[in-house]
Amino acid sequence: MKFEDNLKEYLNDEFIHELVLAQEKERTNSLILNTSKMSAQRFKTAFPNIKEHPFLKNVFYYNKNEYQFGKSYLFDNGAYYLIDASSLLVSYYLPTKNGDLVLDLCSAPGGKTISLLLNNFDKNLNVIANDLSHQRALELSKNIERQGFSNVIVTNNDFSKIYKFYQNKFNAIILDAPCSGSAMFRKNSLAKEDWTINKVLSLQERQKELIKMAHFMLKEDGYLIYSTCSFSKEENEDVVLDVLNNFNDLEIINIENKPYYYKSELLPEAIHLFPNLYDGEGQFIALLHKKGASSTSINKSKNKITHKDLLNKYELNFQNEININKEIYLNNFTLDLTKLNLIRPGLHFGSLDKNIFIPSFHLAHYLNSSISITLTEEEFKKYIHGEEIIKNYNIKNDFYVVSYNGINLGFVKYVNGRLKNYYPKGLRH
Questions:
Q1: b/e string for 124-158 if b means 16 or more Cβ within 10 A?
Q2: Same domain for 140 and 283?
Q3: Backbone phi and psi for residue 369, each to the nearest 5 degrees, phi listed first
Q4: What tens digit of pLDDT does each residue of 268-296 get?
Q5: Distance between CA atoms of 248 and 113, rounded to whole angstroms?
Q6: Cα–Cα distance between 167 and 86 in angstroms, integer?
């Protein structure tokens, strides 16, 4: 069976033709702005030729030939995150409330966790972002750290392990399931040649297993959003209908209709994003609700804080400290994390070198720029080149955050009129 023939089960020939033509056109490029670091107005002024998303706040389309957003200090320091506009709608439709514990089960590279948090600054969410691949989990951690989030635990676990120890624990779950990736054909032209119906059916079995695990990990009155970047009904409607038929405590929530969306008669409550209707690569999204009253709270963590003087210095308020090989992390999670393989157990506070505390580069991303030393344009250029800056300040010898244009860049150590550079070597321009 060819890919186009597979689509005929729920799309007409004219629509399939339009979809195939759209996948042959140049990809769209988009990003979501981190407004804790840079306002939308300031961003639009700096980059006047960007195009605002029609209904998503702080989301912009851009021409990659005009703006090299991936090669800017603004990207390195978390002023925005580059992400396909289709993926952004997954977290957009996930209902959350203040203090919710959220699991992003297949999180890497992190776009759905990042967009969820950027759109919910005021809700104090705590997120466990997991990925099965160790290498992808490391990249996920870098992307989370760059944005300056303190309320994210990055883990590298088999899904069955999380399921075994953390049933009925999460208020909300994002399941962007592994799939055949037909929405990525434009991004990867060889993927279409590798597509087979057998691969789709094999993945379907895994998807059914994952969504059933997610059901058991979800608290009563919790929400599960299921998504794929596949256009095949076998990986989308069929998977959702299967879990609905197996669990009578689950109900599907209707997602609003917009002219950019396609709704199938097979499951009209869900939405498809196709590149001939919506500027993005493509996505299937279904929102499920676990009926019943909210269950009891999760177990308390027993970690203690030992660096209270440093917390006071940086005006931080955390309950838990985790020391892994002299790398210190802070979090406010009440969930028992001992069963998880941790990549990033919270905000990376710093490290101990011969019992001397060195603040983490990523701590600067989290801190407010108002407590930083502001660099001039000339000093900024020196800093991102890794050079030492000679300048006298009426301050004691210690570590300090430096910023440029309201964006924290990292740390320096002030020693007798010299700002010793701690900007990571891999980011130096």
A1: ebbbbbbbeeeebbeebbebbbbbbbbbbbbbbbe
A2: yes
A3: -65, -15
A4: 999 999 999 999 999 999 999 999 876 44
A5: 28
A6: 30
CB burial class (10 A; 0-12, 13-18, 19+) of residue 332?
middle
3 state SS of 210? helix
Nearest of 210, 218, 221, 216 to residue 177 by alpha carbon: 210
pTM higher than 0.90? yes
Q: What is the rounded CA–CA span in Å between residue 104 and residue 156?
A: 12
Question: Tokens 């019943």 — which residue?
Answer: 292
Q: What is the pLDDT of residue 288?
A: 98
> Quick one: 120 and 247 in the same domain?
yes
End-to-end distance of the chain based on CA atoms, in angstroms? Answer: 50
Same domain, yes or no: 283 and 326: no
Q: Which domain holds residue 385?
A: 313-342+349-427
Q: What would the pLDDT profile of 148-178 be if each residue is shown by its tens digit?
A: 999 999 999 999 999 999 999 999 999 999 9
- Point out the catalytic residue in the list 19, 129, 229, 389: 229
- 424 pLDDT band, cuts 50/70/90, is very high
Q: What is the DSSP string of 87-120?
A: HHHHHHT----TT-EEEETT-TT-HHHHHHHHT-
Provide the domain count of the chain.
2
| 35 located within any domain | no
Q: Are residues 247 and 358 in the same domain?
A: no
Query: Is there a catalytic annotation at residue 229?
Result: yes
